[in-house]
Write a structure and sequence with these properties.
- By secondary structure, the chain is α+β, with helices and mostly antiparallel strands.
- It is about 35% helix and about 20% strand.
- It has two helices and two strands; from the N terminus they run ββαα.
- A two-stranded antiparallel ribbon has the order 1-2.
- β1 (about 15-20) and β2 (about 25-30) form a beta hairpin.
């Protein structure tokens, strides 16, 4: 949560996953930008009241692995 109503980060590999007033979730491509850089940018630019860092759900990771394996065998 932030004091800013609609925070945005203009970093390569960072996209808005969801947005509500004063709350934004970002999807971060860790192959393009380290999470430390994203957190530092957020803390520098916004009045952060709450911050959570989450990995994708394991089910999503497993699905992506199988999709990749299927694509390679097709």
């Amino acid at each position: 949560m932030t004091e800013e109503e609609s925070p945005a980060l203009d970093l390569p590999g960072v996209a808005v996953a969801s947005r509500e007033p004063h709350r934004t979730s970002f999807a971060v491509d860790l192959d393009r930008v380290p999470v430390e850089r994203v957190v530092a940018a957020a803390l520098e630019r916004f009045s952060v009241k709450d911050l959570a860092i989450e990995n994708p759900p394991l089910d999503d990771v497993i699905r992506a692995i199988y999709r990749g394996a299927e694509a390679r065998t097709a």
